[in-house]
Amino acid sequence: MTLSSSFEISAEGLTAQASRIKIHANNIANVNTPYYVRKIPVLAENYQMSFEDIIGNMRKGIINAGISYGPGGAVMAGTVADPTPGKRIYEPGHPQADKDGYVTLSNVNPMTDMADAMSSSRLYEANLAVVGIVKNMANKALEIGRGN
Q: Which of 20, 36, 52, 116 is the most exposed place for a label (fewest CB within 10 A)?
């Protein structure tokens, strides 16, 4: 593994964790939105996906599955809908009530998404630390090369 591939892998980790944080923030923002279904981010190993893999992901319900090329690391494979049903409340006057007068609330648990966002934040920080370590290694290699 080269130093540049170490940078690429850490950059992919930073991007993946930033995407996870954005998804969890969106879930928390929609905690009081009726009929909103929580999205769960799905990470995958960065490898060249075959057509069969893409179709398999689509069959599993993974949204935004794409083809990625690279040295390794993790990438966002998409999101899946949380199958947990939202609470139904009886509000016949609500503009979004169904024919029986019920409104389905969001299935977002803000504590779960906060914990997941904090985990993503820590992983983001870890990838950032790896970038710093690799940068220091490159600088030391340059110093050795100069004969200092």
A: 52
- Determine the Cα–Cα distance for residues 46 and 70; give it in Å rounded to an integer: 6
pTM summary value: 0.76
Place of tokens 């998404």: 113
Amino acid occupying residue 135: K
Do 23 and 39 touch, CB atoms closer than 8 A?
yes
**Rounded (10°) CA dihedral 129, 131, 132, 137:** 130
Give me the percent of the chain exceeding a pLDDT of 70. Answer: 86
Domain range annotation of the chain: 3-30+39-81+110-146
**Cβ–Cβ under 8 Å, residues 37 and 63:** no
